[in-house]
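Two proteins follow. First one:
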Amino acid sequence: MKQLLRSKEAGILLIIVLLSLLITLKNPVFLTSSNLLDILKNNTVPGIVAMGMLLVIITGGIDVSVGAMTAAVTVIIGKYMVHAGGNLLTVFLLGCGSGAILGAINGFFVAKLDIPPIVVTLGTMSIINGGMLYYTGGSWITNIPKWFIDFGRIKLLGIPVQILFLVGAAVLTHWVLRYTLIGRGVFAVGGNPIAAVRAGFHKDKILLFLYSYLGFMVGLAAVVHTSIMRQVDPNAFFSFEMTVIAAVVLGGANVLGGEGSVFGTILGVMMLAVIQNGLILAWIPTYWQQIVVGAIILLAVSLDVMQNRRRQDQLTRIDVAGEAPFGG
């Protein structure tokens, strides 16, 4: 119990509660059930993508192309539904499959060619954004079939279906991290890549899987996003990747690798959602949301770096103290 209270997740949860109370004092609408469900529903898309980003960040990597990939998949499934019709199953298969392929491309360059993830994903982000602009001309895709719109309106026990997909993505990611060899390999590679390889983990295969898994989550999020918006705007994901990365880092994942949890990431998503909703209810201009997200990323990364340096200093002092008796 004491260990739980001292964890990063406990601190994040406490901050969320305090922020919620402060916002409620400003605007009592915040804590109504309808508003809370709306907050959850509107943040299912970054939440689902954050599940995939979590695994990548635990290995010490990053993917700044998720916004471009999500936009691309929404265009793909939007065009498919408008021109080919299809059904719900084929839309999900097409969305998740195309997302996984885009993620696997990133994974190939990172794992097989050993190119830094930030370089690879910056490149693919630019390529995808340019390709989507050329293909769509920036035009929206409307006339989404009624059967898909009706799917987006489904509620189970009063809970929007989109929230259930977020729950499913979180459960699947927790299972991968906790109960599979790949999950153990994720933490091993993030903690010490050389030691992980010596222990028998296939670093290349793990990285290829992770980026493909992130792409799969991007595809799922794209379908969920389209079910909420009922149309496709290829420009809707500007700076989306920053929100996703901020949620994961804010949830306790260490950008240097080796640390992170599904529960913490969910809390990170919720904290950003509470902040953004609070700014809206307080009639604060939306551009402040980007400023707040950027500040949160800088703060969280700075804390991680300082904690890592403190650990290194402690290890150094221990090593020096251990060697002292043999000196002189």
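Second one, unrelated to the first:
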Amino acid sequence: MPFTTADYQALLAELEALSDGKYKKFHEGLIPGKAMSYGVRVPAMRAIAKRLVKEDPAGFLAVSVPGSYEETMIRGLVIASMPLAMEERLPLVQDFLPLMDNWAVCDVFCGTFKLKKPEDREAMWQFLLPLFSSAEEFTARFAVVMFLSHYVTEDKVGEGLALLEAMGQPDYYVRMAVAWAVSVCYVKFPAPTLDLLRRQVLPKFTQNKSIQKIRESYRVPQEDKQMLLQYKLP
């Protein structure tokens, strides 16, 4: 059945019924300056998105208006998981980027994509490349988190590290994402990542936060953690 305005109102009522005031207060503390309208947990939003994808995802996207954190999250989940050819999905991703105004929506969106076909994976990579230099904080973060989630692989790690090195955006959530990505690269490909850290070309915050995150990993040998301290910037 097509998704209607009545279905949309029913969805809003469902979000209201799922609201959790304590969780709302807790989660808002994790995304400073952003408010949740309801306080719905991610697993519940994933379940709603899964149902919408089975029913009428295109109708949902056409009828709904992402007027809350939860609606925006569900919209992203639907876009990332609905059955579409990549050439049809990418315009929806492009339209969604301006709606991302916090790390939680960005990161859950990134983690929902399933890039199983080599051609889909490459098409998404080409789409991401210009986003690494975006002046929009969460657009740039999207590129970085997509890289660390899907592309820290033998064929992409070198290019990805070069892109991270070139990123000079001052935004906090971009710098944190770059540090996170460098730490993931070190765990999987320590040699090229160590070369980047040795050269000390990343901004001071990013360099030192990258080393901190690597040292916090249980997958990095203790001797590496000690060795990396010499590359911190004063």
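SUMMARY FIELD: The mean pLDDT is 95. The chain has two domains: 1-98, 115-234.
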